[in-house]
Write a structure and sequence with these properties.
By secondary structure, this protein is of the alpha/beta class. 59% of the residues lie in helices and 11% in strands. A five-stranded parallel β-sheet has the order 2-1-3-4-5, with helices on both faces. Strand 1 (91-96), helix 5 and strand 2 form a beta-alpha-beta unit. Helix 1 (3-14) packs parallel to helix 3, helix 5 crosses helix 9 (199-210) and helix 6 (129-139) packs across helix 7. The chain is globular. The two termini are 27 Å apart. The mean pLDDT is 95.
Length: 211
Amino acid sequence: MNETYTNIYEAVIDGDMETTSHEVQVALDAGHPPGEILQDGLIAAMGEVGSLFESGEYFVPEMLIAARAMQGALDILRPHLVEADVQPLGKVVLCTVQGDMHDIGKNLVGMMLEGAGFEVIDLGTDVKAEELIQAVEQNQPDLIGMSALLTTTMPQMSIVIETLQSAGLRDGVKVMVGGAPLTQEYAEHIGADGFAADASQATTLAKQLIS
């Protein structure tokens, strides 16, 4: 791997936001292609962070710190990616469902998805089915990701899926769900396309669903 990309890679894994942003700028100033910086530096590093999490070497705090370092660098890189017409891996609309204000898990999923090369549209928390449908119509995403941390808000996911079907949008978008009280069985019961127990799994699942 190019030394500059190695420096970016290692800085992300270490969760060093300042060094990550600096090294991305160094790479841009040296004329490295933005898509290459993204792929060989940031995406490669976040893939390793996901693997470290899956193996039990990293926990949520380490993953969060690495994701923030990646995101800071991505803010610098993003205009150059647009200019170079580098296409995202896919487009995802994320939200926490109506009645639920929890967002730490959702935010981490969003950062991990961005780190994997997805374009993420985060609608925030307490999102009504109608708002989500509007976002799907406006953005035409490949994927919807819904989160719920309360058992009382879980039924909102079913309402969203039913509303998607009524609006004739269900066939055009994959739906993945997550959150502490959810299970694979529940996801299947409500007609979702997949369930992820954490941000690393959500990233893997998202890639599978669009492939």
